[in-house]
Structure to design on (729 residues):
């Protein structure tokens, strides 16, 4: 299986649509440079905000790497769907986190001398954001494999939902403290608790299609939520990898 | 026209648009739930909340404009008589209108829901309209970037490019006036004038400018150029005025005026003088509720010790990313800031104000809380803290400190009441904790008031120690009393 995966990596690198992630990376770098040039430096609190926003943007666009125009055709190949999807997920998450990492490196380069930046905790937030975006897109490409590239916008929706829901968490549950806030360590323990949720969602969505069995509860849950997925009248293509 | 109607119906049905509006109202209700509302602050934050509607409209408009590139639509659309410019025009008219209407409705719902709580301060309609104008701008931006950069990822990327500067503007800079919402404000908002009118005109002028940019995808026509030029001609001067009107630091003469008693309006209630800044008189009944139980516990002969309750200015911005506390020009400042609790937190605010009155009545010296609060600009304004001060080890040994704690305990929890004048250092914590425990026992005793009144002059004498006071108050010393203090 590992050998199959290794063989698949190169063609998949070519097949994946990297443009959205590249644009996001460019926008985030441009924003950091602009902030540094207008202010002379990126101060710590701005650095945290920039890091979070670029992580969110990367998560929102990383999902485009999961869209496979050959999703149906590839079902007949001997390589199982879960392997292809997890490989795509790993490539997308790796690329998104690498892009975020370069943004963070740029931020660190612009930090005033001696300013602290808790990069490990920020990386935890970024990983959760990227995986949330990917999990939204993974659910969408599973339920609407023929929807095309815009199915990945479900990842943006998931990212948006994560942000919106966390805004309701206040006081001890506030997830976006600044570095000098005593809440910082508590918040990052919470981030650690949240991290498995998108991973579980990815595990559900990246599995093999189930053949000729009554719909599993996990699929029912996904179908329920995808019912809200925006797409207008054209989203109503009934093709699905569900039985 | 029918195309416009069709697109409007589609956009209104989009869960992105109405979902974000529902989300915005829910979020704003949640955020304002435990704060007594004040119009200036509420309108600014609601305008920022409207950016959620703007974000939803931007994504929905972007999806709508890219629709013809998805799902085999190119073939279908090629057969239709209406060409891309007409479809774009319809969307450019629809997206901002729908976004503005939905944002207006959400803003109105939220602001009207606050009316029963009688918000204080002056209502600035221009500030309230900034939100819908910003949302409309986002809608038209979604169409324009969708025409110039077709591709489904454009929406999220543009959203990032809009959100990042808005969030960064929290730490100041007059360029914030060029963003959809001027997020940074002082508390009170009124102390630092905001260019709300010019900013609104600037945002409204950007809408035709961005729309013309979107249409220019199909070549520059006289009408498009005219719209762009007109938008530019209004946006540039309005933006310049808005930038000039945004101050990083509160203007000095304005600050000086605000720190004098003449800036306030006073009202005598139940023998106590309450003074509020114009517009904030609506909060006086809330303050009365806090002060009344404390005064009821003071012996009638000592009631002339009750101070004037004057509203105070908290920390105000004094330059990029820096804040400072302001000492008013009246002596012994006692009074609330521009914050008050609601729905469960009002009790904490009441205890806090009651505690201040109690400390003043018991004759505790003014703590040195006005000294400094200017922080290192590297860490930004979020680091600004208020040093409350402490009565010191000598104070923790005096009986009058116990009196102050008990009086404060009439308005709410003893420790919350004490937090308004005592921020103990670690080395004095045992001595302070000991007094807090005695005060809590006293508050629970029904005969505490009669004993206090009987020995009032002895108790508030600075020479009386806690040990001398305990038998007078009918308290037995704790066996595990720790008095260490340094």
């Amino acid at each position: 299986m590992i050998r199959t995966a290794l063989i698949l990596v190169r063609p998949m690198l070519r097949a994946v649509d990297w443009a959205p992630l590249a644009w996001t990376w460019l926008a985030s770098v441009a924003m950091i440079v602009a902030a540094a040039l207008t202010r002379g430096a990126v101060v710590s609190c701005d650095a945290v905000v920039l890091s979070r926003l670029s992580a969110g943007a990367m998560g929102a666009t990383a999902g485009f790497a999961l869209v496979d125009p050959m999703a149906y055709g590839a079902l007949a190949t001997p390589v199982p769907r879960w392997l292809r999807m997890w490989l795509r997920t790993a490539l997308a998450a790796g690329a998104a986190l690498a892009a975020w990492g370069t943004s963070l490196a740029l931020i660190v380069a612009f930090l005033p001398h001696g300013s602290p930046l808790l990069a490990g905790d920020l990386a935890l937030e970024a990983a959760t954001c990227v995986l949330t975006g990917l999990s939204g897109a993974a659910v969408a490409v599973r339920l609407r494999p023929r929807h095309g590239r815009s199915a990945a916008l479900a990842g943006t929706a998931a990212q948006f939902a994560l942000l919106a829901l966390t805004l309701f968490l206040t006081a001890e549950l506030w997830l976006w403290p600044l570095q000098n806030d005593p809440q910082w360590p508590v918040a990052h323990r919470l981030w650690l608790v949240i991290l498995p949720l998108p991973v579980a969602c990815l595990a559900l969505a990246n599995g093999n299609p189930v053949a000729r069995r009554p719909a599993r509860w996990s699929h029912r849950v996904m179908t329920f939520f995808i019912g809200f997925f925006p797409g207008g009248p054209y989203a109503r293509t009934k093709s699905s990898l569900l039985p | 026209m029918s195309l416009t109607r069709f697109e409007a119906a589609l956009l209104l049905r989009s869960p992105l648009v109405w979902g974000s509006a529902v989300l915005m109202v829910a979020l704003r209700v949640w955020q304002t739930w435990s704060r007594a509302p004040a119009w200036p602050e509420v309108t600014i934050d609601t305008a920022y909340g409207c950016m959620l509607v703007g974000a939803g409209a931007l994504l929905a408009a972007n999806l709508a404009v890219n629709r013809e590139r998805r799902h085999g639509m190119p073939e279908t659309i090629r057969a239709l008589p209406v060409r891309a410019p007409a479809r774009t025009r319809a969307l450019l008219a629809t997206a901002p209108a729908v976004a503005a209407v939905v944002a207006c409705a959400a803003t109105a719902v939220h602001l009207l829901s606050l009316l029963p709580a009688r918000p204080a301060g002056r209502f600035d309609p221009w500030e309230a309209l900034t939100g819908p104008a910003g949302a409309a701008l986002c809608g038209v931006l979604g169409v324009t970037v969708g025409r110039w950069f077709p591709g489904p990822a454009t929406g999220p990327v543009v959203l990032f490019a809009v959100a990042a500067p808005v969030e960064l503007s929290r730490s100041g800079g007059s360029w914030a006036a060029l963003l959809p919402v001027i997020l940074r404000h002082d508390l009170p908002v009124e102390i630092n004038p905001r260019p709300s009118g010019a900013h609104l005109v600037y945002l409204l002028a950007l809408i035709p400018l961005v729309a013309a940019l979107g249409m220019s995808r199909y070549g520059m026509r006289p009408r498009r150029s005219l719209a762009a030029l007109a938008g530019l001609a209004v946006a540039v001067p309005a933006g310049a005025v808005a930038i000039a009107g945004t101050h990083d630091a509160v203007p000095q003469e304005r600050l000086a005026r605000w720190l004098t008693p003449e800036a306030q309006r006073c009202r005598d209630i139940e023998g106590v003088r309450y003074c509020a800044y114009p517009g904030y008189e609506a909060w006086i009944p809330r303050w009365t509720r806090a002060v009344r139980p404390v005064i009821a516990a003071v012996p009638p002969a000592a009631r002339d010790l009750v101070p004037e309750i004057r509203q105070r200015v908290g920390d105000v911005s004094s330059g990029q990313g820096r804040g400072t506390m302001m000492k008013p020009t009246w002596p012994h400042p006692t009074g609330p800031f521009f914050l008050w609790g609601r729905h469960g937190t009002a009790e904490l605010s009441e205890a806090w104000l009651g505690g201040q009155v109690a400390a003043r009545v018991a004759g505790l010296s003014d703590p040195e809380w006005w000294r400094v609060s200017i922080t290192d600009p590297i860490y930004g304004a979020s680091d600004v803290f208020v040093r409350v001060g402490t009565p010191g080890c000598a104070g923790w040994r005096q009986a009058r400190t116990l009196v102050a704690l008990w009086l404060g305990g009439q308005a709410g929890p003893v420790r919350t009441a004490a937090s308004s004048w005592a921020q103990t250092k670690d080395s004095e914590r045992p001595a302070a904790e000991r007094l807090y425990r005695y005060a809590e026992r006293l508050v629970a005793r029904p005969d505490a008031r009669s004993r206090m009144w009987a020995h009032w002059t002895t108790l508030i004498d600075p020479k009386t120690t806690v040990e001398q006071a305990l038998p007078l108050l009918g308290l037995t010393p704790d066996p595990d009393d720790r008095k260490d203090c340094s």
Notes: Residues 2-247 of chain B form one domain. Strands of chain B lie at 265-269, 272-276, 309-310, 315-317, 323-325. Residues 332 and 366 of chain B are 7 Å apart (CA to CA).
